[in-house]
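Forum: Protein Structure Q&A
Topic: Joint prediction for protein chains with partners

I've read a bunch of threads here and the consensus seems to be that you should model interacting components together rather than docking separate models afterwards. I'd like to see that in practice. Below is the full input, 469 residues plus whatever partners are listed. Could one of the regulars post the assembled result?
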Amino acid sequence: MEAPLLKTTNLEFEVDGKTILKGITLTIEKGDFLTITGPSGSGKSTLLKIIASMLSPTEGKLCYQNKPVEEYEPTDYRKEVSYCFQTATLFGETVKDNLTFPYDIRNQPFNEKKALSALKSVGLGKEYLTKSVHALSGGEKQRVALIRNILFMPKVLLLDEVTSALDEENQTIIRSLIRNLNQEQGITIVWVTHNTVEIQSSNRIVHLVNGEMEEPK
Amino acid sequence: MNLAINNASLLFATALVGIALIVVYKEKLGLGKDILIGVVRAVIQLVAVGFLLGYVFNLNNIIVTLALVLVIIFNASFNAGKKSNGISNAFKISFIAILTATSLTLVVLLLSGAVLFIPSQVIPISGMIASNSMIAIGICYRNLNAKFKDQRQQVLEKLALGANLKQASITIVRDSIRSGMLPTIESAKTIGIVSLPGMMSGLMFAGVDPTYAIKYQIMVTFMLLSTTSIASVMASYMAYKEFYTESKQLKN
Ligand SMILES: Nc1ncnc2c1ncn2[C@@H]1O[C@H](COP(=O)(O)OP(=O)(O)OP(=O)(O)O)[C@@H](O)[C@H]1O
Ligand SMILES: [Mg+2]
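Posted by a regular:
Agreed with the consensus. Here's the joint model:
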C-alpha cells in the first residue's frame, strides 16, 4: 500500500504553558477532501498552520510523503502544501503585485493570461488586475488571496474558512472551483469551515473540540 | 591661531550652567541632579579623552592608533546593539557593519591623500565615521522592528506561499536601508544653509581659511554618505534574518 500523503502523529501545540492542540493523529491520503470543523478557538487554524510548517508542533511528528517535514526545505514544502489564511492579507500596492509574487519567487516571468483567467474563475474581471489592494472588499481580497495559492498548483491545499466573507453566489463559485481542483486535478483539500454545505461535500470530517480530535466513523 | 580659551574663561562659562539650573528650579522640572551629573561627567570624560588623545598623538604609533580606532568601533557597535530592542546578535552585526564601513571609507580617504595616516587625523575621522554608522544602524534596527511588527501578516502570507527569507523580507529590508541613509542625505541637502557642521566650524575656529575648511567639509559629507550606506546595507541585510527561526518561521 502507498504511504499516506500526510500523517500527523500525536501532535501537540503549546503556547505560554497553554495547550492548544493535543494528541492529533491524522492521516491524509492523496486526493482526500477533508473538512475540519469545531467551535471557535478549538485550534483549527493552529492545526492547519502546523501542517503548512508555519508553526512547529511542541510534541509529535508530521510526515509528508513518508518523510518528516523537518527534512524538507521549508520553501519547497510550502509550495507543495499551500496554506490560505483565514484573514486574507494582501501585500504590495495592486492585485497584480500579489499575483506576480508566486512567479517572482520561482524566478519565472509573470503569465498575465493565466492570472486573468484565474481572476475570472473566482468571478473577478480583468479590470481587477490593476486595482489597488486598499480598494478591495473583504470578499474580493479573500478571492485574490486564494488565487495566489493556486497559480502554481500545490499538491495539498489548506483552506482556512476562505468563504467566510463571501455572499451566497460567490461561495458557490469558490466551492465548485475547489471541488474541481479536487476531482479533476487530484489536489488534496483540507478545508476548515463551519458551512454545512461545504461540510457535506467533503469525503471526511474531523471535529476539533478544545484542541482534541473527534472523527466520526 | 586665535584660540584664546583658558581655565579662567571656562570658569566663567560655568555661569551658563547656572542659567540652565535656574530655569530648572524655577520651573520645577526636577532635572537639577541630571544637569549636575551631566556636567560632571562631561568634564571628566573630556579631560580624560583629552589626555589620552594628547598622549596617542604624541606617541604617533601605528598599533596604538589602530587600537584606539578599534575601541571607537567597539563602543559604537555596543551602542548600536543596545538600540536593537532584542534583535539577536545585534552587537556582532553592528560590529561587522561598522568595522567594514569605517575601514572601507578610511582606506579610500587615505589612498586619495585626503586624510594622512597620523593619529590626529585618523582618530577623529574614524570617530565621525563610526558614530554616524552607529546612528544609521540604530535607525535601521528601529525600522526593521517596526516594519516586521506592522507587516507581520504580509510576511507570513509570503512565507506560506513558499517565499524564502529574503523574498519575504526584501521590501522591509530596502525600507530599512533607506531610513538609515535618509538623515545623512537630508543633512547633505541643507549643509551650509542651516548648519555649519562641526568639522568646518572647528577648522574655522582654529583660524583656517573658510575656503580650505569647506574642502574638508565636502570630504566629510561624501565620506558620511558612503559610510551610512555601507553600514545600513550591511546591518539590514544581516539583521533581517534574525527575525526568523531555523525552520524559516517568523519568530514569536
Ligand atoms: N500565538 C498564539 N499565542 C497564544 N495563543 C494562541 C496563539 N495562537 C492561537 N492561540 C490560541 O489558541 C486557540 C486556538 O486558536 P485557533 O486560531 O487555532 O482557533 P480556531 O479553531 O481557528 O478558531 P476560529 O474558528 O475562531 O478561527 C485560541 O484559544 C487562541 O487564542
Ligand atoms: Mg481559525
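Residues 6-213 of chain A form a domain with the Rossmann fold fold (CATH 3.40.50.300).
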